[in-house]
Amino acid sequence: MATQPEVGVSDFVLLDNLTTDKFIENLHLRFQHNKIYTYIGEVLVSVNPYKTLDIYNAQHMAQYRGREMFEVPPHVYAVADACQRVLRQQGRDTCVLISGESGAGKTEASKFIMKYIAANTTQVHREYIDRVKNVLIQSNSILETFGNAKTNRNDNSSRFGKYMDIHFDYKGDPVGGHISNYLLEKSRVVSLQPGERNFHAFYQLLSTSNPYTKKFGLSSSEVYKILGSERGTAHDSKLYSVTNSAFNALGFSPSVVEDIWSIVAGVILLGELSFSESTEGELNIGGPLRSCVNAFGVSETALREVFACRVLAAGGELVSKRHSLSDAHYTRLALAKAAYDRLFSWIVQEINKAIEAPKGTYRSTLIGVLDIYGFEIFETNSFEQFCINYCNEKLQQLFIELVLKQEQEEYAREGIQWTPVQYFNNRIICELVDAPHQGIIAIMDEACLNPTKISDKQLLEAMDKRLSGHKHYTSRQLSPIDKKLKHGVDFRITHYAGDVTYAITGFMDKNKDSLWQDLKRLLHSSRNQSLADMWPEGATNIQKTSKRPPSAATLFRNSMSALVTGLQSKEPFYVRCVKPNPVQAPNAWDDQLVRHQVAYLGLVENVRVRRAGFASRQRYDRFLKRYKMLSQYTWPNFRGANDRDAVMVLLRDLQLTDVQFGHTKLFIRSAKTIHGLEAARAELIPSIVVLLQKLWRGTVARMRYRRMKAALFIFNAWKRYRYRRYIAELQAELQRNRGVIKRWAEPPRRVPVAILQAAYRRWRAYLTLKPVPRDQWPQLKLKICAASVLKSRRSYWGAARLWRGDYLAIDTYNDRAAVYKSAMASLQKSQNIGRPLFSCRVHKFNRYNKLAERCLLVTDSAICKLDANSFKLLKKPTPITEVGAVRVMSGDAQLAVISVPSARNDLVLGLVAPTEHTPDLVGELLGVLAHRYSALTGSELIVEVESGVTTRCTLGGKNRALQLPTAGSPATATPTPNTPPPFTHAHNVITYHPASARA
Description:
The protein is an alpha+beta fold.
């Protein structure tokens, strides 16, 4: 877009020879090439093309985001972006003032601005922001449906004034909004000019077959009085769906939407009612009365009564006054207008509830968008056109005050060299309308307060008498030769946009804007809940009198004053809309019409002021605060006398010359200078932000560290206290149970209870071992190992006696002990079999069913079989780690089966006890084996204790039964002279004969 060739001059300030003809010629040239936007500095001039242009899509929107106005071609998006940038950068409220004639494109311009502002947001909390944007945009559809209509000048003319405040948070994202509406043209509901349509809502309701039309007996093919000659179209049907979608998006419930369309249907049906009088003077009502009653949700009797009479409160008494036909007709029209007007105001209130920022939401700044009716001159201009044109006078005065008058006065006040520009100040016209006691509105209010009924003609006479000397007011009575004015009907006001003739007819009634209390009570009693809520004053007691409400003109004047006051507090941006032709045809150009608009909008004077003036003015202190980081002499603080000196030093350092110094402000002529300052500032801001972040993060980290350190100190103190309390509980448990902890209390979190329990066990072990001599501790370990496998399983295993271990080295047990010791010394040198831990004589039974006397030796790592006489090693020692299990008997039999799975040949041994006082060696053998096995493998030795008389063994790879002799067997019968051997066998059953049986 930016690379397209320029057509004409994109900024009127750059015109070589500024005249009205040159201005219009440039405007027409750009219009012919679809360049509908042109700047006057930062004021945008927009010409309605009356056709769709492809310049509003997302790509165009992206090209204007964050760009200065002089960098991109003129566009309404540039104004919206500049408006939002001032809001974000400077934190100032802004507003966009859109002005122009009816049909000049004001409503479309406001919609494009809303669309851009809604789209130009950050990605934070996207879902919430999208909802706000959708609500803001959807509200336009509803307001256009119920507040816009087709006129002879505009197919979508706003018949009300709208001002929307869009609230933003500190990031510049929209958080909500508020809509203010002004003076709906409700007279249009019952009175249309030829060729015009009523409000869009009526045609949308009748444009398609839906439950509402059927319910109230309406039809799209019928002719209805309040709709004129126009009928619903396919476009209206499409817009009806859009309106209902917008209702849904804004949270209107289906029942509320049904209530709204019911009221619209009721207004249409009111227009179809007719009245006549019977011969007895009774009022007869014709037309769809029942359908009308159904639509409004009131009783038929009550509706008939309000048309037939009204009840008045006089002196504390109720008086009923019957209606004439004209009174009934007036009541019907007043009811239709009031119902639709209140419906529109109620819809605006409901929209505000949907779009307002939630409670507790921080609202930093706002952008106001003013889309209000344009200046209107019709064939017949009534009270509504009078108010609309007064509104445009006030806005033009605001433009003059802000752009022309105040600017020139400020130059003079600040002592700036300046060539004054002549302009027309329309204050005199505004005072003609709203001056206290002397203005037209004051005269109308006096007439309304008169206890006698004042006619419109009498009002005109009072205006002529009071305003006869005003040069902007005239009538036929004041100018008898002006035959364009009707005698006793017309008066003319010379507005800034031209002469407008108003017909005084209806001014009094429309200004009173009165609605009888009977009608308010009727609508408040409606079964339609929404309609009842619209009329809370209907609940007032019928006998209670109230002050006369302000007139319509006074309310409108007050709202205009409040609007202007609010706009003056914001940074204004202007869009001046121009209508190129009166027939709304694309590419058509009416030079006289455009020239007239350029004149009364003051566009040429605006260019002259802009050329001679300055793009920016700021107080010295504000300018210094914003740009002082650009110079080393002013950053971070200037050490001079005052802010003006600091600004002079700053500009001198930046080598800027297109400035003038006022008494309190700095004036900069070129907008490019401002943009250059902003660009340089934006380039430095990140480094300043990083510096501030670094300092603040360091501060926060130190604060956090101090808090963590304090918390750790408190935590450690608390932990020590919990530990001490827990240990005190354990000590109390020890005292109660005499040094034994029977139940461990629930420990606090993170208390190393396992360490405490281990320490307790070591302490208990110390108390147990303390009476035992130190030299007996090794055999105590062996006894503990034996006890772990034999306790409660074998009645006697030698726990009470002294375990000697190497019995073969004892002379009393082995008479060849010296030979044994010599053999052991030799084996330790040659075989390195280790230290002997246990030895004794045994009777061994082998796989060949042979019995032999041997010696058993258990060392640190192996089990050895020795010759009974020479004590030489027989075969290879069996490693202790290869022992699979040891089987013994539960009685006192000295039988032991050492299972070696890898050899598939168990050691079947009968141990020979030393003496009768040391009858058991099985417990000592198991203690040694279990202790060494655990030390070598880290696991427990499997010990099987047979409780009966039978066990098993494996010899030569075959399983064999091994038993003790039973009562009555040959081995235990009456002793024979020959003592039986230790082992006997028969039929693969091996019998071990204990020494007691062999004695």
